[in-house]
Amino acid sequence: MNAAATLADRLPLYLNLIRWDRPAGWLLLLWPTLTALWLAADGFPGWHLLAVFTAGTVLMRSAGCCINDVADREFDRHVKRTAGRPVTSGALSVRQALQFGALLAFLAFLLVLSTNPPTILLSIPALAVAVAYPYAKRVLAMPQAVLGVAFSFGIPMGFTAVLGGSTWSLQGIADAVPPAAWGWVLANLCWVLAYDTEYAMVDRDDDLRIGIRTSAITLGRFDVAAVMLFYLAALGGWLWLGRAHFGLGWGFQIACNLAFAQALWHGLLIRGRRREGCFKAFRLNHWIGATVFAGVVFDLSRL
């Protein structure tokens, strides 16, 4: 009874740890992953893969939050926005957070085991990059690029899950992921650089004070211009690849135009560099991903 009561008491802390009430984070990861599944399958990829990648995305993003909060616990206590996080505040111990993160990652790996060898092989570097990201800000001028790699791994994994065979080799991955898919990854990396730079602009003053490196600090007074160029590269890349290499039509083009209109609005939100505007722009970015995904689904539905 006491153990059950203790677990019930801690449940809100674990939900807070994985940002359960803030789904924008896993939606930013989910939309590109689902887009890749649809592109690889040339339409609906089937309920099994849809369930595996949706649940796996939520689990791995949640595990990443556990790792991030443990790695940043000393930094977070000096930032007003993050000082109340469970690990930073001491409400959850480092061991409890790591154990919970390991459990979530293990559950995600069990889901991956239901796919095929190329996808399972890709899940290993995907986990390694996710673990490495929280420490990148200690050594890299633009650690957001590492996050971009981590948040783009669902794209090649989506292609291998649909097109991969039963071969345990790098060649099996190469055969399943065409060059255009890697181009889609590069465009997605640009999108991550755009929205995570907006996120970094929120905490720029605190990060400067405590010595953390971010793209917002590195870009300096060119931050807003760089964010808009990142958006242009991402959406322009997706539009070109979708039309030239994946056979998408006018529905996808309209979706990309709508996504670019959203990006222009974000530019207005961040141009004053106010915390509220930058954070709002970041939180709303998942709608850009959702819009692009909707365009892909529409064109591949053969309506």
Give a written overview of the molecule.
The protein is an all-alpha fold and 303 residues long. It has a single domain, classed as Tetracycline Repressor, domain 2, CATH 1.10.357.140. It is built from 17 helices and no strands. Helix 3 packs parallel to helix 7 (117-136) and helix 7 packs antiparallel against helix 8. Mean pLDDT is 92; it is low at 1-5.
Give the topology.
Layout: H1 2-17, H2 24-41, H3 47-71, H4 73-76, H5 86-89, H6 94-112, H7 117-136, H8 144-150, H9 154-163, H10 170-176, H11 179-202, H12 204-210, H13 215-219, H14 223-244, H15 250-270, H16 275-283, H17 286-300
Helix pairs in contact: 2-3, 2-9, 2-17, 3-6, 3-7, 7-8, 7-9, 7-10, 8-11, 9-10, 11-14, 11-16, 14-15, 15-16, 15-17
State the main characteristics.
303 residues, mainly alpha, Tetracycline Repressor, domain 2, 17 helices
